[in-house]
User: Which sequence fits this backbone?
């Protein structure tokens, strides 16, 4: 009888080897399928044009230049992900919220913006611009007011640039203060927003009294007093530290007692219960 050394016997399991190869082939097939599917999806989304944005409808632009708005829009659409994929041109991946935020930052004159996607290739953009209430001109460190004038709305939001103006169709504010920083901010300070509310109240109430304001003036050494220059050529002096409504009521009573030929140089309403004039 032949004796075998069990330690030296090499046993080869053919079934296990076949199973191992089958697992490898399945893994390779699955990996290939995933890569092919990913490539197909990538092609379908970004290269086939199936969901490409090719029509953008913009409504509501009046104050804003259409060319400037379209430039910002096209820069967003043409931006590339990973250096070659125009992700934002895909209707699914176009980030409407992010785009709206960028447009509000780029164009302060926009009050609201609504972006709606319409399958398969259309984006509708509806814009509501701010209503111009007046023009605020800053002294900005110079001895005279120059062209550093900006539009503002009822909320005190500033935007754009315009020439110095006067008239009673819109509010005109000449801010003579030399040391303010509002010229570099998108809106007026909280204190100046309150002052603007007083000016709006004054302008509206005076129109009811058939008195029209050419401009308001905030003096350089502002401590609460400001002036309103009328179309009749005289000046009204108000105090933001006193009740504006009472100052207007006193003015109405005062003018009612005066004759039509009354032509003052100024009327001082800053002290409640008293009126000084010249």
Assistant:
């Amino acid at each position: 009888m032949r004796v075998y050394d069990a330690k030296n016997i090499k046993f080869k399991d053919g079934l296990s080897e076949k199973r191992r190869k089958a697992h490898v082939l399945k893994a390779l097939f699955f990996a290939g399928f995933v890569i092919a599917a990913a490539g197909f999806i990538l092609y379908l989304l970004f290269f086939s044009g199936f969901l490409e944005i090719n029509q953008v409808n913009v409504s509501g632009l009046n104050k804003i230049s259409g060319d400037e708005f379209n430039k910002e829009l096209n820069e967003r659409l043409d931006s590339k992900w990973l250096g070659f994929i125009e992700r934002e041109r895909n209707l699914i991946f176009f980030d409407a919220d992010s785009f709206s935020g960028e447009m509000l930052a780029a164009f302060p004159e926009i009050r609201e913006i609504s972006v709606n996607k319409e399958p398969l290739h259309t984006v509708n953009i509806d814009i509501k611009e701010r209503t111009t209430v007046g023009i605020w001109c800053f002294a900005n460190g110079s001895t005279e007011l120059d062209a550093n004038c900006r539009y503002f709305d009822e909320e005190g939001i500033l935007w754009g640039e315009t020439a110095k103006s006067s008239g009673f169709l819109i509010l005109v504010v000449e801010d003579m203060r030399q040391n303010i920083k509002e010229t570099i901010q998108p809106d007026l300070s909280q204190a100046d927003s309150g002052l603007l509310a007083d000016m709006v109240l004054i302008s509206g109430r005076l129109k009811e009294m058939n008195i029209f304001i050419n401009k308001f003036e905030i003096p350089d050494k502002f401590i609460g007093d400001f002036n309103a220059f009328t179309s009749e050529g005289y000046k009204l002096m108000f105090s933001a530290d006193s009740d504006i409504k009472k100052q207007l009521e006193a003015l109405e009573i005062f003018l009612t007692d005066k004759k039509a030929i009354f032509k003052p140089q100024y009327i001082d309403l800053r002290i409640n219960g008293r009126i000084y004039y010249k």
Observations:
- The chain has two domains: 55-129, 134-277.
- The first helix runs from residue 14 to 46.
- The domain at 55-129 is CATH 3.10.20.310 (Ubiquitin-like (UB roll)).
